[in-house]
Amino acid sequence: MRLLKRNHADNISFTKDLSDLEAAQRKYAILSHTWGLEEEEVTFDDIVNGTGTDKPGYSKIQFCLRQMRRDGLDYIWLDTCCIDKRNSAELSKSLISMYRWYSNAEKCYALLSDVPQLLREHGGELRTNLERDFRLCRWFKRGWTLQELIAPSVVEFFSWQGISLGTKTSLERQVSEITHIPVAALRGQALSDFTVHERLQWQEGRETREPEDVVYSLLGLLDISMPVLYGEGRLKARDRLQSEIQSAQKGIRHKDFSVNFSLPGVIKTPNFVAREQELQEMRSNLIGDGSRRYVVLHGLGGMGKTQLAIAYAVRHAHDYSAVFWLNVKDLDSIKLSFARIVKQILREHPSIPRLANSNLESNVDDVVDGVNDWLSMPMNSRWLTICDNYDNPKVPGNSDLAALDLCQFLPDAYQGSVIVTTRSSEVKLGHCMRMSKLENLQDGLRILEHSSGRKNLVDDRGAVQLAKKLDGLPLALATAGAYLSQSTFTFTEYLDFFERSWAKLQKRSPTLITYENRTLFSTWQISMEQIERRNSFSANLLRLWAYFDNQDLWFELLNHHTAEDPEWIRELVGDKLDFQDSIQVLCDHGLVEANAASGLETESQGYSVHACVHSWMLAVLNAKQDDGLAGAAIHCVASHVPMQDSSDWSLVQRRLLKHANRCSSFLDNIGDASGLDWACHMLGVLYADQGKMAEAEVMYMRALKGREKTLGVDHTTTLDTVNSLAILYVGQGRITEAEEMHRRVLRGRETALGLHHMSTLQTLNNLGILYSDQGEIAKAEEMYIQALRGKERVLGPGHTSTLNTVNNIGIVYANQGRTREAEAMYMRALRGRELAAGLDHTSTLQTVNNLGTLFANQGRMVEAEEMYNRALEGYTKALGLEHTSTLQTINNLGNLYTNQKKTLKAEEMYMQALQGYKKALGLDHTSTLDTINNLAILYTDQGRMVEAEKMYIHALKGYEKALGPDHTYTLNTAHNLGILYVYQGKITEAEDMYMHALRGREKVLGPDDISTLNTVNNLGILYAHQGKVVEAEEMYTRALKGRERALGPDHTSTLNTLYNISLLYIGQGRLEEAEGL
């Protein structure tokens, strides 16, 4: 290789002829361009003689010198002048080496001689109106520029004036569209990942000056080395190239072993979908030097392993001298397959004695040996054999006498390539690839589209829902499509039948020839029979699993057996090793796959089955509901529900939710569910802790009815469920029902347990929560203080239950404006909870959140934001973003940002909280209404009055319905809506809202409460604007006296009222009185 070297004065000269090692030690650029007339280009002799500077082509060298200075490079290679073309040996060597030289370059400058100066948009995208010239330039039509585009890691495009247009990376979309070269190839993916045919297609339509160069310019792309013979013509050069390609792929003597490609007895799906990543992985592991290569495709039956093997064989048939198909399901299938292989070989090579004389009917061993001897011949190393249906392998633990040893049917010589398809993960031959479901929903829709014959499924909601349900399982998707192609059912109707009558639907579905006439109903029965022979515990576990969710079943969840459970369940989970052995058998047969590690110290890794397999487990393995197994599943889930004082409780509960949803769906069909009252109560606890209020109520009510019937209405266990319902109703804003429940519990516990029992004291605490939420602060404080004294005496001051009440008293004090006392209570609760439960426990975070609210109300914004962010981070980690506690903190951050006038951040927080609340609790829940009310306040501040009014009215109606017309939340919203109406000039409506708020606040909070006085002051402003000076003065005077008494004479609110009175007096001409204020 000969380079041009630039000195500091931008003079150029040749280096000596460099070896590959010497060239690699120098950083150099290359120029890619389209040639002008030959006499216009600077030649090798011009550089040697110091001439050519007056040629038009010298401007290219000057351009290169400028770019080299910019890039800090001293060396460059140009095809016009760095090759002595009179030396045929040098020319031939250069052409063969050129791809490697381009690959090793630091940068390639692509100078587009027919593209004028183009401008760039931000981000490197060419402007649309100028992009046309780039797309039409000659550079993309020339033969040699193909390798100059592919080989270098960096290609920068320049207009003729030397203006940079972008790089191969920044313009990869346009370049790919122009050239039809995949983006992956432009990014440097190994060329061996693309077939020879694909690479040849990239050259189609390109032109070269010499006809043979159409072929020679492909040598580097195809990794072929052959002599360059100008004058032989394009066709002869192409023939030589094809011969070299076949020799490289199939061996030098490939014609001696070539067999025309066919797959007799194999049905190819007409529309194979996706799996490009898998095909590339197979290719990279099978390509080589002819030594033996294995790829094992293993996974669930119906996942498309056979069709993937077919797709690979069809795509890469030209890479192999012969492709053979072996059905290794059983000995009969193997015999038939070898008979077909012999016929394939003899059609091309009839003179092979051992094969020509073999008896295909009587002696299978001779036929197998004859084929394998031929495949083992020296130089016959480029064949591919696909061994399909190897589902009964002879492996340790498989005692089936019909199990097969695949290696007995393969050649002894270590050459050739082998693909194996199997359901077993125990087949350990070469590179193993687990076949997983199709992850892209669009791929599932394409299978449904092809098999059903129906179009535009992406717009069919039923089709999309069905594709989601079938969850990327090709056999299930193809079966559904085949059924629908023969019926008038809609996709939605099919989905309904799939969920309600799975077995009946599958029995009536057509068999699929591309899946060997199998159906979903039968396909996994093969694996089940093998599993039952190998490990009965594994088979029974599948039957039990039907009553759990299909995702994430783990050992500790099952380890809650009772005396009523079958013996096999107790044995299955009696030892973790036994459980692991049983689950491993299911994994080995492809029915089950292991999840990622749980990340929990006390909980094991989980396992999952495909949703369609899960449907089969219920419909086929449990044709009739097994009440014993259903009850065992419910008991396991209920027994595993952790309490909030245990470590990682929220993460464990979230793992349990899907299982709770699944197993509880069987409750109505259990003949005698009387023994499951406790389990229903615990499922209610799970749902309530996870913010699933409606589901929690259903479970609690089921438990309550059972306990009242079996234990009595006043039994302490019954009262536990009544207490849980009361707490639930408080959370739902159903105050009247909640108080009724709490009073029932209090009476019952006082009678049964006494006044100072822990349960009685907790009921007092709960009543305090109820009264606090109702705005009955005095009653709430009374309950809390009574509960606190009892708990301190019975449990001690640092007990978590005592600290809960301390925290609640802090809330009461904060609502009363007793901020110092509130902070003291919160700090006591925080220190105690951090010590007892930990820094990140949800009870600790609750107090952190409360402190944030207290600090915000005091104007201590930095401290408030710090608290809220700590709470949000902890809640998100422990409970997830959609939990109501997390959403409450997000809402609080919205309040904080509103007060700080950070309106965009505030709205973002509110909208996130609102969407979460709507999903978790519904539009009419009080927490949802709180956020809607807050959004209304924000929109009012932003002047978005129409949106604000809509929000306020929704919140007001919701509060009135959930809490009543006199609840403080209802009254606050009425007050705020009055303010909005004032801004809108709706005076009558404003007065109505203010009067509603005033009457309610006087009734609930008293005439001298701060909130009451705020409404009084606002009414004064309203009357003043209306010219009702007498009424205005009356309101202002009352507000002033109350605020002086409650807040002091120097408080800003007091001073505001004083200012309002002075304005009123000035307007009346009472200047002395105004000045006296």
TrEMBL record:
Residues 28-114 form the Heterokaryon incompatibility domain. InterPro entries: HET, NB-ARC, NLR-like, P-loop_NTPase, TPR-like_helical_dom_sf, TPR_rpt. One of its GO terms (molecular function) is ADP binding. Pfam families: HET (PF06985), NB-ARC (PF00931), TPR_12 (PF13424). Residues 276-428 form the NB-ARC domain. Keywords: TPR repeat. TPR repeats lie at residues 761-794, 1013-1046. This is TPR-like protein. It comes from Polychaeton citri CBS 116435.
